[in-house]
């Protein structure tokens, strides 16, 4: 077990062992698994994966805190940013949220949209986890007025027919199963998960297939230099296909992605020679993805240059790219904060709002570590605030 981590309880060990047994059986039958497939099992295996099991994942009682869990400021600011788009598209506009988490964002966003008189025709939640879907349904049914809740729908797959509106994803790309690669004598190898002689999980490197090898060579070409032997990192060769799958039928509107990550030349710095993959367990970050499978959130930072490329391949243009702090300022966070501060019931609530704003904005918190990317398609004009447009840093991509 990695040092300084909380001791898992008996139920967690039993749950993890069930997933571990399934992974062992699969490796015994098929051979070592590409790390991306192992990561997919750990996060999404039905009934056993991190996002499929019934443990609390978000907030103080979970393993990490996302921006919507801090309070209402984040979601209200996002709504202010996208309201002009919904207004331009009119009554046929939909709002699609990928991976709705606890439902905290949807609750605040729908309340703000209703208050602004701009409810979408449908608020769609694409949530693969049955457990999280149930939690979202309970929360939103209790929190929203019946006429607002009636617009909410859960879907099992991205819309297959053309639609217009806003697609929103907060901390989704970082949880896509990542491919781990390394270089030996100039050749590309892919990381696999295998078994040792005693049935324990271990990592090994195998020659990469053409898709992974070609993706690494694309990175080297774009960076202008080959990776050094022994350099290890991750990439998402499936990202263009994923983008087309989730946003391909959005014919008019914007897609907003917020996540932690870097532009490519900062992601693949020579000194970042072991990549960005991390595991999160009870608010502790560690670097052993093989420990306690299914009980850790496994994530890798986002290459926002790759996200822009995937958007371009799906016929989207980059409308804006900027740190989260700049995005929230341009979206109108100051007004959102002042309104919430004025409506606060007591000094304790005002103090909580101030702390929430700090965590969202400070460089060493979420303000600089998280980035926002707006992709647009099929719009006659780009209805973003002047502040957002002025803060755009897409030139860094």
Describe the protein.
- The protein has one domain (6-397): 3-Layer(aba) Sandwich (Rossmann fold), CATH 3.40.50.
- The two termini are 38 Å apart.
- With 397 residues, it is an alpha/beta fold.
- The model has no long low-confidence stretch (mean pLDDT 93).
- A hairpin with a 2-residue loop joins β11 (278-281) and β12.
- The chain has helices at residues 10-30, 35-44, 67-70, 73-89, 104-115, 130-143, 146-149, 210-223, 239-247, 264-267, 304-313, 324-331, 333-343, 347-361, 363-367, 386-390, and strands at residues 33-34, 94-98, 123-126, 152-155, 163-170, 179-184, 187-195, 201-207, 232-235, 250-262, 278-281, 284-286, 297-299, 302-303, 317-323, 370-377.
- The strands form three sheets. Strands 2, 3, 4, 5, 10, 14, 15 and 16 form an eight-stranded mixed beta sheet that branches. Strands 1, 6, 7, 8 and 9 form a five-stranded antiparallel beta sheet that branches. It has a three-stranded antiparallel beta sheet with strand order 12-11-13.
User: How many distinct domains?
Assistant: 1
Total helical segments: 16
Classified by CATH, the class is Alpha Beta
Strand content: 15-25%
Rounded radius of gyration (Å): 21 Å
Give the beta-strand count. 16
CATH topology title: Rossmann fold
Distance between the termini: 38 Å
Decide which structural class fits the backbone: alpha/beta
Q: How confident is the prediction overall: mean pLDDT?
A: 93
Q: How helical, in percent, are the residues?
A: 40-55%
CATH architecture grouping: 3-Layer(aba) Sandwich
Show unreliable segments: none
Shape: globular
Largest sheet: 8 strands, mixed
């Amino acid at each position: 077990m990695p040092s300084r981590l909380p001791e898992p309880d008996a139920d967690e060990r039993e749950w993890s062992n069930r997933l571990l047994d399934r992974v062992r059986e699969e490796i015994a039958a098929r051979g070592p698994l590409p790390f991306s497939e192992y990561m997919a099992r750990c996060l999404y295996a039905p009934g056993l994966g991190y996002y499929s099991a019934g443990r609390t994942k978000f907030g103080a009682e979970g393993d990490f805190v996302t921006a919507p869990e801090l309070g209402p400021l984040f979601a209200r600011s996002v709504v202010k940013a996208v309201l002009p788009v919904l207004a331009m598209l009119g009554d046929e506009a939909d709002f699609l949220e990928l991976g709705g988490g606890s439902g905290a964002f949807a609750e605040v966003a729908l309340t703000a949209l209703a208050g602004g008189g701009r409810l979408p025709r449908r608020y769609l939640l694409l949530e693969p986890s049955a457990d999280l879907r149930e939690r979202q349904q309970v929360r939103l049914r209790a929190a929203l007025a019946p006429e607002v809740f009636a617009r909410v729908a859960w879907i099992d797959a991205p819309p297959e027919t053309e639609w217009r509106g806003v697609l929103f994803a907060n901390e989704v790309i970082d949880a896509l199963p990542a491919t781990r690669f390394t270089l030996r004598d100039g050749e590309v190898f892919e990381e696999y998960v295998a078994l040792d002689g005693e049935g324990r999980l271990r990592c090994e490197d195998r020659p990469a297939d053409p898709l992974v090898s070609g993706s690494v060579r694309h990175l080297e070409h774009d960076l202008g230099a080959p990776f050094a032997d022994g350099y290890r990192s991750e990439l998402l060769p499936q990202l263009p296909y994923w983008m087309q799958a989730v946003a391909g039928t959005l014919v008019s509107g914007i897609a907003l992605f917020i996540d932690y990550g870097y532009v490519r030349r900062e992601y693949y710095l020579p000194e970042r020679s072991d990549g960005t993959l991390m595991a999160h367990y009870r608010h502790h970050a560690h670097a052993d993805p093989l420990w306690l499978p299914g009980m850790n959130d496994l994530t890798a930072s986002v290459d926002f240059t790759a996200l822009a490329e995937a958007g371009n391949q799906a016929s989207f243009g980059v409308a804006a790219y900027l740190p989260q702090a700049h995005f929230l300022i341009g979206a109108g966070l100051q007004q959102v904060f002042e309104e919430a501060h004025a409506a606060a019931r007591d000094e304790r609530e005002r103090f909580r709002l101030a702390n929430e704003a700090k965590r969202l904005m400070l460089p060493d918190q979420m303000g600089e570590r998280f980035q926002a990317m707006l992709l647009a398609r099929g719009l006659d004009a780009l209805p973003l605030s002047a502040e957002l447009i002025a803060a755009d840093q897409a030139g860094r991509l």
